[in-house]
Amino acid sequence: MARIELDHIRHSYLAHPARDDDYALKEVHHVFKDGGAYALLGPSGCGKTTLLNIISGLLHASEGRLLFDGEDVSHYPTEARNIAQVFQFPVVYDTMTVYDNLAFPLRNRGVGEAEVERKVRETLDMIDLNDWADRKAQGMTADQKQKISLGRGLVRSDVNAILFDEPLTVIDPHMKWVLRSQLKLLHKRFGHTMVYVTHDQTEALTFADSVVVMYEGEIVQIGTPADLFNRPRHTFVGYFIGSPGMNVMPVSVAGRQARFGEETIELPGTPKTPMGGAIELGVRPEFVRIGHRGMPATIHKVEDIGRQKIVRAVVNGHAVAAVLGEDGEIPAEPRVSFAPEGINIYAGSWRVDYENASEGEAA
Ligand SMILES: Nc1ncnc2c1ncn2[C@@H]1O[C@H](COP(=O)(O)OP(=O)(O)OP(=O)(O)O)[C@@H](O)[C@H]1O
């Protein structure tokens, strides 16, 4: 397995890119640790597949270098990069049996038959296809074929990395959950470096140790699911992760206080200055309190989602969502306040650290 280094990578599909917007990947400068499980998460068109294809060698980046364990592989073709790939749609040999489909990548590299048998059986177990081992792939459902593709990606242990591009799209919801859990177990057991592209936050948050959030050709945050939830580095991370997403409102800041219209909000610390760009306050619905204290609010809607309620309110002319426990009461004259630990300040969409924040908090 390898450490993957993206050294100032930029990519444009145009022959002569001139402006920043001409780049599908603006600038990616990050390291994927050896043995890490990463999910590339972001909306359609943000550059996930472009980045994955640069790692696999299907694309060569316009600028920058790609290194596997310190070796520059930027100009290597896919075959020379020693990676396994699983795509959105099945790639299987229809005329071969399920067993032979999995054995193929191993036999191709001269692995002995005893080891082939051991690895193939182990992988078939994982994807729950041992009973189908002797059946030809032809005629199997798309779902089962995709499981074979996953198996082909997982069967080799000597690869630098395993890359997945939305691999569970054609799998039914229950099996999706099963396979995702198995991938996670497999990662724990064998420590492969895995990079997994998805636009589904549940998929990303359950699979990965580190989620790489992409937005308009940039990586806006790499973090654990808890980091993304508690300290979104960019307002986009706040909107995109969580349901409902983070509330963002325009404020002005003076010292340890934010001014939101006529209201004053105490901050958990003093934001570092200078701050460039529009100043905003971000607070997740889970940190919004509804009660008798705080800013006057008008409640527009209460959605009962089982063990919680989502309350849609308007505060100071701005929509604010709150998550309440099932027993949460809404007073006749409701007021809204924010739990200080959940308040983040943003300047030009990027989070501003508080002065004297501990290292963990500043991350
Ligand atoms: N072959 C291509 N030629 C020109 N532009 C392309 C090509 N492939 C992708 N793009 C553009 O590059 C940008 C990033 O696309 P990319 O496919 O990497 O995004 P993505 O995040 O993987 O999206 P999706 O989830 O829809 O696959 C988009 O604006 C897309 O239109």
UniProtKB/TrEMBL annotation:
Entry's Gene Ontology cellular component terms: ATP-binding cassette (ABC) transporter complex, substrate-binding subunit-containing
GO function term, MF aspect, one: ATP hydrolysis activity
Pfam families recorded: ABC_tran (PF00005), OB_MalK (PF17912)
Localization annotation: Cell inner membrane
Keyword ATP-binding: yes
Membrane topology of the entry: Peripheral membrane protein
Transmembrane segments: none
Domain ABC transporter: from-to ranges: 4-241
Keywords: ATP-binding, Cell membrane, Membrane, Nucleotide-binding, Transport
InterPro entries: AAA+_ATPase, ABC_transporter-like_ATP-bd, ABC_transpr_FbpC, ABC_transpr_MalK/UgpC-like, Mo/tungstate-bd_C_term_dom, NA-bd_OB-fold, OB_MalK-like, P-loop_NTPase
Family according to the record: Belongs to the ABC transporter superfamily.
Protein name: ATP-binding cassette domain-containing protein
Species whose genome carries this gene: Nitratireductor arenosus
